[in-house]
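Notes to self after the call with IL:
- keep both proteins in one doc
- input above output, always
- annotate only the second one for now

Protein 1:
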Amino acid sequence: MDLGQKAPFAIFTFHLTQIEPYMAKLTSLFTYNGTFKDVTNVHSKLYGKHIRAARGTYKTARINDALKKSGELIQVANRFAKAVKDAIDPYRKNIKDGSLWFRLVSLFRRQLGEKGMVDLRGLKGLEFHPRYKLSNFFFAKVEARLSENRNDLEVTATTICDYELAEDDKEGDSYQQTIIVIFFDPEMNAVVADESVILPLVYKESQTQKATFLIPDGSTIAVIALKIDFFKQGKSIDWETKRGMEIVEVVEVEA
């Protein structure tokens, strides 16, 4: 499947043009708000309080075409970023990071600018916290494939604790591993499913989780995230530093 052909947006191309600045500026003898007889009152850091001709009074006001296109790119990037963020947010309640929105918008805007399309496969490798990463603790390998009848997505997640545990056992004795699958249709409508398992926390020991997810009708792509939470005596360790989440795979699921 060519993701570019199915994505519901226009491909934007644009060229930068330079507009010569024009501003008539007068020193104000009185203060008022708004525009009066083609003169408007302004307060700028550069010129201070002054009055000038209203925009478009002597020259037709126009917006640079490049700025229009840039604005359209941002709107499209925002739409995709919101769809992804809304779908994953319920799993981020204990992973506080204010940069996710900016990182998503930046990724999609860059794709639109460079390729003229959004490709969700670019999400692979995205950590949900730039400091407290899943990769700080675990090597993770995730495989996903369609079932024989192509109705299900079969996911296998293998993790190896690559983090040398403290001898006093404060790090925990197990971890909860959650496979999160976000199914998107061409209109970016999302259906989210997850499955969790508690696994023993042993340094350099491999653990495997297998899960099967029913593919919703109309879905064309699946974004797969893996979340790890450290546990001790059956309870989650409530430290932000003892968990991580990453998008580990993006696969096509269209029958």
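Protein 2 (the one to annotate):
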Amino acid sequence: MSVALSPFAVRLLLCGVLLASAIGLGLLGRRLGLNRWFEAFAIAILVGGALWLPTFLRTPVTTLLAALIFFLGAGPVAGIIVGVLVFVIGHFGMPGGGTALALLILVAVAIGVVTLSISRLRRIARARALLPGQPPGGDVELGGTALALRSISPPGLELGCVLYRASPWTERQVASREPFAIRSPAGIALVEPDGADLDLTGKKRALSPEEGRALLGLGEGEPTPKGGGGPGDLAYLEEGGACYVVGAPVWEPAPAELVARAAASLPEPAGYRGAPTIPVFRSSPGHRLYVADRAEEVVRSESLFNLWAWSSWGLIWAAVLILQGLGLA
């Protein structure tokens, strides 16, 4: 004997699933050292609230929310265009109205986030499995603490650092090119940042016009670039700061400068897993390195949380979408 659930019972069941997922994701975030309670419960409340909207209100409410989000993020024209599209598609072309359209978009976003999280976790796993002399089989994401072969300072500034980036007056990036090392639990890796994409957000300081001109190598009387804005900020990575690099390394003997630095200040020699060769990261044509000043442990925790969270949300949203299409929710 089969039991048919009413739409009211289906909504209650889905709200229970949303509540359970919020509690589970909050506990997962806590275990990973992240505070994600607000995010987990906000998603549950928004989706749960949408379940109880009368059918005739779903498209108008979704239209207004979409138009408002794009109005605030991209301007009034984008808000009007998106609002009109959501209303027309939701009202005339999709069972379930605008709520179903929003859920379909969210499911697509969830698939994208899960795919990116899996890719990042695979890069981290490849880094942890790196063995001297063996090719990594793809990009790796190796993290640790920054180690300067020699302290550098941006032109015109007395600021010792390992790496720096600035864009005075224009979008053209001025960055250091001096190699530096990353000290990881498995050993030392060398990074050649020339041509790399530098994502430095941890340490910043405002530049004066004189410092900006010095970074650009402008002499006295030379005009500043006509790009609008001012000299901007200098972002930099300090000695011992947390960082990671994404790329495909090659194995090479540790350079003499790194060997000498390790002998002078580190308890272990310059090497990787006991071998004298180390992974060297450098950009190549069509393949730029990515360097960021964040701890690998935090990045891995965030990727694990995103994998589980967006997988759960995507499945729930897909279930709601199907049930609304069948007229059961």
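Annotation: DSSP finds eight helices and twelve strands in the chain. The helical segments are 7-31, 37-51, 55-74, 76-93, 97-128, 209-216, 256-265, 296-325.
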